[in-house]
């Protein structure tokens, strides 16, 4: 759209938010503003200042693009915390163009031919350009969703389809996934999935077969598995942890106090912590990773407490991003967190000792996963080499 950029982002693992206004609706709103504004230029300017001081910038300010610049963030005067009955206006730092990578069409066609799914396809995510190797500096990374597109759970933040009995698993999916990814020449792949509580092991064997097939075809590719909690079945966690993956990821999604409000009743904070702990116990060398959405009504102290528990559980990597309401049926955004506050949490995470902390309004659980992982893995290896050399001398 020429007048107003679309804004949409993944929340948690899958859910999205789309802001779409047709040219007709924009024209209607803008015309109404003109019809009710004073006629003289001086009066118009005074009225504009008055309105901005009360309600924040109007639609035309966003259309002009003036608030899309980082230098203008501090000038935003709209509400960031939701009042009762209010729906918050999208702040300027969450307006972004949809990046489409040069390989998008080719890779999408390959997925369709092999009956595979991606987070981008299922959630209609604008980060699709990034996930598919788009962008000038993007690492060749893909996020593939295993086990179909229908979940057995109904978290209040997520817009993925749900059903008690989704279609059966495709037995050829692990092989097809490995075949496709090997052909793409990727450096890093994130394998995630819906929850499949209808399957005895939650689909853990399906995950493990996919990782094994990938590593057999390309031993150098880095594999991250973003898994469900398997209802706390640690044998299922063990299957995946020992499959040859490099990063075991499972999202706690929100602070402890909001778990029952945000997630499906079958999920809980302690169960998620146990999954992350057990993956580390089974394979001490694996990196563990989790993600938290902000803007659901959590307090600063609750965030600190949650991060502390995660570090005590041995979690290595952390991402924090803005929650976005996918549909009117889902949880409302309670607060839009400014970029400066996300920068603060990144600093806090690093000071707590996470191997890396990725924190920002548009950061998601698999956000530039390969770039962050490779950068920090190399840093970690250099430190180990230096320590070994010092001990030898």
From TrEMBL:
It comes from the Eukaryota. The keyword Glycoprotein does not apply. InterPro entries: Aldolase_TIM, Elp3/MiaA/NifB-like_rSAM, LIAS_N, Lipoyl_synth, rSAM, rSAM_sf. Binds 2 [4Fe-4S] clusters per subunit. One cluster is coordinated with 3 cysteines and an exchangeable S-adenosyl-L-methionine. GO terms for cellular component: mitochondrion. Residues 36-61 are annotated as: Disordered. It comes from Poecilia formosa. Belongs to the radical SAM superfamily. Lipoyl synthase family. The keyword Iron applies. Coiled coil: none annotated. GO terms for molecular function: 4 iron, 4 sulfur cluster binding; lipoate synthase activity; metal ion binding. It is found in: Mitochondrion. This is Lipoyl synthase, mitochondrial. CDD domains: Radical_SAM. SUPFAM superfamilies: Radical SAM enzymes (SSF102114). Its EC number is 2.8.1.8. It is an enzyme of class 2 (transferase). Pathway: Protein modification; protein lipoylation via endogenous pathway; protein N(6)-(lipoyl)lysine from octanoyl-[acyl-carrier-protein]: step 2/2. GO terms for biological process: protein lipoylation. It catalyses: [[Fe-S] cluster scaffold protein carrying a second [4Fe-4S](2+) cluster] + N(6)-octanoyl-L-lysyl-[protein] + 2 oxidized [2Fe-2S]-[ferredoxin] + 2 S-adenosyl-L-methionine + 4 H(+) = [[Fe-S] cluster scaffold protein] + N(6)-[(R)-dihydrolipoyl]-L-lysyl-[protein] + 4 Fe(3+) + 2 hydrogen sulfide + 2 5'-deoxyadenosine + 2 L-methionine + 2 reduced [2Fe-2S]-[ferredoxin]. [4Fe-4S] cluster 1 binds at residues 120, 125, 131, 366. Its cofactor is [4Fe-4S] cluster. Residues 41-52 have a biased composition (Basic and acidic residues). Residues 136-355 form the Radical SAM core domain. PROSITE patterns: RADICAL_SAM (PS51918). [4Fe-4S] cluster 2 binds at residues 151, 155, 158.
